[in-house]
Specification:
Length: 373
């Protein structure tokens, strides 16, 4: 598995935030999904109570390494990369069970799902990007990217995928044709006269309007800002000491969060208006991964076998959940709406529950009968 360019770290990838809808009953049930690459598990947490809801066995093979989860926009499925098995596992969020396994390229890391939920883009560090059709859970295209893909972010309109690469570039993919339009060089300038590629670009996030990208380099300890209109680098933010391993965007676009590991693991809060660091927070142990809740009120830091939850209003720790498992990426989702009563199925009401794909009222009624408490 090609990991030498990550300066010794074998768990580096991009964390993608998906703002998704849906409700069960009156109040939406928001979940966070935390990957445990050393244990073959995903822990499901209730974001309101911080309680552990479930632990999902992704795979049982000793080489199983679930790393980066991504949730479909309707909240019905989790897609998680397995870096050592060259696969992506598909999980049903209503039952918390594995329903499919998809073979992709070698050493998959980052993953992102298009806003319409129809496709998933997987960054394989071996030099390809796999495109998955989520309706059939099959790979429908493979894009060659010799710069070593690591992380993926998709524009709000779904027309472009921005892929961070280990060789110091960001590839811009046209999702209509699944071709690379251009490669953006990300260059570090340690002295005024000279520059060199910012290697090990392990994670990338886009602002909600898609106008800018933020990408972190594990080799330079910096965060770089991209203008997506010109596809050029426009700013550099010093997010070290340490090596930034992950990045997450606040839903309103005002803040971006990165995590670095060095002598001490840290999380950085960046103001996207000024591209300056507003706060630095101890992240516990390594490797730290970050994610932001869809309502923007909390960001999670996974590291030191625990989840640390930060209040985004004060940038202070609100709680810490000890899981005693190796930590990887985190994603968030709202469970899809399901019928509670037979009456919910009447008068074409069954069509509301699109995540369950009822074809008629009878199927909806059958579901209620089988799941009645």
């Amino acid at each position: 598995m090609p990991t030498s360019r990550f300066s010794g770290f074998s768990l580096t990838a991009c964390l993608w935030l998906l703002v998704i809808g849906g409700a069960i009953g009156v109040e939406a049930q928001m979940r966070s999904y935390v990957a445990h690459p050393g244990d073959g598990l995903i822990t499901v947490l209730d974001t309101q109570t911080n309680a552990v809801v479930d632990k999902i066995t992704v795979c049982t093979d000793h080489t199983c390494t679930p790393l980066i989860p991504a949730v479909t926009p309707n909240g019905a499925r989790i897609y998680v990369t397995n870096v050592s098995q060259n696969t992506v596992t598909v999980i049903d969020t209503l039952t918390n069970t594995v329903i499919d396994t998809i073979t992709v390229g070698q050493a998959p890391w980052g993953i992102a799902i298009t806003p319409d939920g129809n496709r998933a883009y997987v960054a394989n560090t071996s030099g390809t990007i796999s495109v998955i059709d989520t309706a059939t859970n099959t790979v429908t295209a493979t894009i060659t990217d010799s710069d070593g893909p690591s992380g993926v972010a998709i524009t709000p309109d779904g027309t472009r995928a921005y892929v961070s690469n280990g060789q110091g570039t960001v590839s811009v993919v046209d999702t209509g044709t699944n071709t690379i339009l251009t490669n953006i060089p990300i260059t570090d300038f340690p002295v005024p006269c000279c520059g060199f590629p910012a290697f090990s670009l392990v994670a990338i996030a886009l602002t909600p309007d898609g106008s800018r990208g933020y990408v972190v380099s594990a080799s330079t300890g910096k965060t770089y800002v991209i203008d997506t209109a010109t596809n050029s680098m426009i700013a550099t933010i010093l997010t070290n000491p340490g090596q930034p391993l992950s990045i997450a965007m606040k839903p309103d676009g005002t803040r971006v969060y990165t995590a670095s590991v060095g002598f001490q693991a840290r999380a950085f809060v960046i103001d996207t208006a000024s591209n300056t660091i507003l706060a630095t927070i101890s992240a516990g142990g390594a490797p730290p991964f970050v994610g932001v809740t869809p309502d923007g009120t909390k960001f999670y830091i996974d590291g030191d076998m625990a989840v640390t939850i930060i209040d985004t209003a004060t940038n202070t720790i609100s709680t810490r959940i000890q899981l005693d498992l190796t930590m990887g990426g985190v994603a968030f989702g709202t469970l899809p709406e399901v019928p509670q009563r037979k009456e919910d199925c009447k008068d074409s009401g069954f069509q509301r529950f699109s995540a369950l794909a009822f074809r008629n009222q009878g199927q909806c009624v059958k579901y209620v009968t089988e799941h009645a408490h």
